[in-house]
Target: Glucose-6-phosphate isomerase
Amino acid sequence: MIKVDFSKSKVEEEIKKFDKNRVQKVHEMIENKTGLGNDFLGWLDWPENYNKEEYAKMKEVASRLRKEIDVLLVIGIGGSYLGARAADEMIRGLYHTDKVELIYIGNTISSSYTKQVLDYLKGKEFAIANISKSGTTTEPGIAFRVFEKYLIDSKSKEVAKSRIVAVTDKAKGALKQLADGEGYQTFTIPDDIGGRFSVFTPVGIFPLLVAGVDTDSLFKGSQKAMKDLKSLDNSAYHYAVARYILHTQKGYASETLVSYELQMQMFNEWWKQLFGESEGKDGKGLFPTSCVFSTDLHSLGQFIQDGTKNVLFETIIDVKHPQEDINVPTNEQNLDGLNYLTKNSFHKINQTALEGVLEAHSITGGVPNIVIEFEKMDAEMFGYAIYWFMKAVAMSGYLLEINPFNQPGVEVYKQNMFKLLKKPGY
Ligand code: PA5
Model:
């Protein structure tokens, strides 16, 4: 479902010559779970080993809620919301016509945004999926207080009980205790799966079920990827090796993930978290950035084409089959001179833009380009792609000799903030 073209990466030969023993050793470290952070490799087999009973229960709760609500508030930050949002937008599009809307909160401390969501909910039927593995994260914690109170005040304790679902650790943590105390439905985030690797657990699956996404197909895609990427010679590892060479041997500091589909913007955001939080440590790692073309060709395109050299390379996601396509209508007067495009569909023009930009950036501009072909934008493709990138980051992180599964740097700001807010004990 994914094909990668390295012909414009400027390191095609180096990839072929890269030490196969090194890749094999890392592959064994991943598969045998012997590397750094090996207690967080539960995601590897999850597409096959996921809890089937819990999945059935999630379907039951989601189908009841779909009948009752207009909005599901997804409360979570980082790995606790980005996967669901990436899937929601990539699969359903930005202006879907499904009855249930997902709104994301607890991913910011912005008072304006939080109040705007509160106001938007007036007169709407809503439920809450409160997602936090630790149960102690500040942003979702304070958002939950606000919206739980609003649900109870505007409806009743009884309604809140039937409309609040907690996705959290199976036993420990404040959220589990709170949910059990109030009688809220809980679903479990497995101990050995970290936030940014948790899309296939209830973290991603429960909100997507409420959104009416075909999660069976999503699992099917992840299972396919799991099978395809068991072998040593796979495209996710080639991608990891290419990035490693561009970073450590050619000196590139940043990778830009480029999509030509607006509904892939949150997929880019998910990818940035996966690679940024997994690799950016011990003074190492590529700085992950993203663009949507042709939109950003009218802003960042200038820099990529013509700005400081040898800083960034591009990884393009080329979606072969769009969800929809439309034609450019003929205009008799043709004042804008665009009638020459009427034999083309929008997708054809978009694909031609991709071809032209690829040539301009890589040949004229000298910027390395890796092209990743996605067949389509549906649930199966999403499941496949997520697993593919997770396997790539495991290889990539271990090649850099860091632990891809922790995030010690994130703690520093929290400690400072707690001290300033006078949290007891800080
Ligand atoms: O990937 C990660 O582990 C993080 O981004 C977490 O998901 C994020 O910090 C939220 O943590 P929690 O789910 O404990 O609230």
Remarks:
- Residues 77-80, 132-134, 137, 140, 194-196, 277, 407 surround 5-phosphoarabinonic acid (CB under 6 Å).
- The first helix runs from residue 12 to 17.
- Strands lie at 2-5, 71-75, 101-105, 126-131, 164-168, 185-188, 254-259, 287-292, 312-319, 369-374.
- The mean pLDDT is 97.
